[in-house]
Amino acid sequence: MCVVAATGHADTSVGHGELIKAVDRALTTHGRALLTGPAGAGKTEVVRAVSAAAEARREIVLRLAPEAADQWIPEASAAALLASVPAAALEELSGPQRTAIAFLRREADAPRAGRDHVALRLAVVEVLRTLAVRQPVLLVIDNAQWLDAESTDLLRFALRLTPTRVRVLAAERVQGGAPVGEPLCGPGVPAVRVPPLGADEVAELLLRHGLPARLAGRIHQASGGNPRLALALGHSLAEAAEARDCSAHHADPLPVSGQAREVARRLLAGAPAQARRTLLLAALASRPTISLLRRAGRPDAEAELAEAERAALVRVGEDGTVEFTAGALPTALAADAGWPERAAGHAALAAAVDDPVQAVRHRALAVDTPDQGLAAEITEAAAVCRSRGQRALAAELGLLAAERTPSRLADDELARLVTAAEDAGWAGRADLARRATRAVLARDASPADRVRARLAVIDAAGQALGALEETFAYAMDEAAGDPALQAAVQLRIAWKHNLSDGDPVRSRDAAAEAGALAAQGGDQTAEAMALTVRARMGRILGDAGAEEILAEALALPAPEVPLGMRNAPQYLAVRHALFDDRLADARRQLMVLLPAVRRTGSAEDVFEVLRSLTEVELRSGRCEAASVHARRALELTIEAGLSPGPAWYVAAMAETMGGSFARAESYARRGIQASQEEQDQVFLSRSLHALGLIELATGEAAKAVATLRRVAELEAAQQVVDPSILRWHGELAEALIAADAPGEAAELIDPVRAVAHGLGRTGVVAALDRARALCLSAQGDADAAVGLLEDTAQRFESLRLPLERGRTLLALARVERRRRRRAPARAALRAAAEVFERAGAAPWTELAREPVPGDGAGSPVTAAAALTEAETRLALLVSQGASNQEAAAKLFLSVKTVEARLTRIYQKLDVRSRAQLATALRTR
């Protein structure tokens, strides 16, 4: 018999496969196990999976699911359990035992003389023994924390006397009270805790429920990986977006209301009331610590936080810092507290914090009446935050200052709102930008102020510019007559044409108009940015004059850039160095820009620099450093609420080269989903390219062809001419060759190579030559292929592109293997492995360690080595029993192509049947 107790009803089939195995192992090994976790963690789903597996093994499954009210009714759970026992098991009981059970179940003919507790205990033992004699028994107790004390005592007695065919798994909610499961199952019971979902698993959970993937990072942060809370937050966001008649924005605040608030309340109920008062103060503080909470009037903060930590509500660091396990918890605490309680908390914190800015913030939040002096102090605090680069906090303070400004000072209030909007736009806080802009538009604001506020909303939108057509239209109308304002709007239109519309020609033309307007209005910063956009679009379109335009932009004065370093000519110069494989120059300039953008407080600027550093380090063969930058970029994206598509692309590339192909594929697919949701054509192409490279590396040639063809279509639609910006051409050619289409690959390579050669893109030419060599090999000219690959490997070495050199050596090994030259193939593989190992390219190192046919104790090189990669995949499928139709579906081919390819395989291996084919492959 197996006792399983759990709580929750969230969809936890995501991410809990290993957990279910751990439960099964514990039951098999010990016969007892304890499943624990907070409310909503998914314990019920785990229990259901264990129960289903037991039923499939024809075990008897008894289920018990007490509710909260049952814990106060003596023997309520015991009665419910016995009510589910088959009647045949009760018929074999002795008279006193049947009487005790009839009394417990309140049967009509039960005696009224009173209950016999000893007989009842023995009856339960006998029932379990009787059932276990026939079959193994699984007893499922869901919500064990709500067992009443008498039932718990009864079950503990009975389970001590059960045979080995009666196993016990008790699972319960983590909360402040005494645990039920361990006394029920006995001392030393193995504990299996339901872990929180990771960000990857939250993304999968959202996708399964039709919720936007681009919100996964923020929902993971807000939910702490709790599945039920994550889904509730996702649905709340979707409902809020529907109410606004627009899509949910990646930087929107997460609405902890409705179902989400109920889930958060249930989690918070695990802490005693006194601890929750301390938690409220922690929720109101920006950087809570034990010492701060003590100073704010909670002398027992340490002990109370320890209780909250046991209930999995907070984590307390060694230095006393307090961090909530789920970001929605402090929001729910503050929302449920009344205004007097919140005001008192802020007043206490204002006297306890040591940061003057935070002191002003808490003083402002402790009152709700206008105060001219306080509004001025808040405005000064916002200016301090701006100088520190804390633009999001500056925006929050600016809104507070406007709210505390007396109505007679309308001009001051309006100025504070406009500044708050611009701070929010800079910080990427779309919620604050919209809030400030709505307030500006509701007042008698000048056209200039209205335009500045609308531009803030555009700037805060990140990659999601496609949904702001109306905002652009109003901004253009209100900017009429002011060339400087018109230039600012036209600049954003140019960015939108590139990002959302994928139209570099329109982007270039809008930038040219913006530049002319900026020059007319005397705004040299905007003029430099307009030239930067023209240079960027010129590079995309293969315009040889793009570098001259960039030089013109760089020659203009370079003050602090109000529209972001990512849009400045200095940053574009770094990108061009990266495209040209001048990696040392790019790294040096990026290391200068990194501290500068951190000072400005623009999360998007910092992300852009981290993205470029990741790409530079990957191409330079420093995979570990690249992974660090990619990780920081992803963390920043989640923390700042930026568009996640670019960050997932960066993570995918870092994992592809230096981590795990499986993790890389997960990131790439999420990047694709998020970019599609935000209509971001630029990073959609990039994430698809990452996925295609992964599929090519892992031998999924047909899938790689399909994926990379989508990239080709997108790039063609975006009129991209320069092949150095996104180097997908060589990958698609290699995938076509692996898919047995060398002729099509050659048709792709030749024109692109001519463009790359004409533009001086030597790295691109080398990558295309690697593909051309594989094409020659597939067409039967192995000698020419080997010579070209050896030359290409040397060129990559001189260009200091080690990973490209390693990939070329891998290709050389395959060509040598195909023509049955074992020693050169082994040498190429060893050289490739050394290159990849030095670079920290773990997945590629594994690829380079694959055995060469003929290696080993005298094993012969067979004709199987002559198969192409596409033929090898088909041969393996067929030898494993796949029909022609099944193989065609698996490889994305027609049945006719499979039949023709299978005929060639039979001829090459000199076999006449599938059985002979399987034998030949085993020999290989």
From TrEMBL:
InterPro entries: AAA_16, P-loop_NTPase, Sig_transdc_resp-reg_C-effctor, TPR-like_helical_dom_sf, Tscrpt_reg_LuxR_C, WH-like_DNA-bd_sf. Residues 860-924 form the HTH luxR-type domain. Keywords: ATP-binding, Nucleotide-binding. It comes from the Bacteria. The keyword Hydrolase does not apply. PANTHER family: TESTICULAR SOLUBLE ADENYLYL CYCLASE (PTHR16305), TRANSCRIPTIONAL ACTIVATOR DOMAIN (PTHR16305:SF35). This is Helix-turn-helix transcriptional regulator. It comes from Streptomyces amritsarensis.
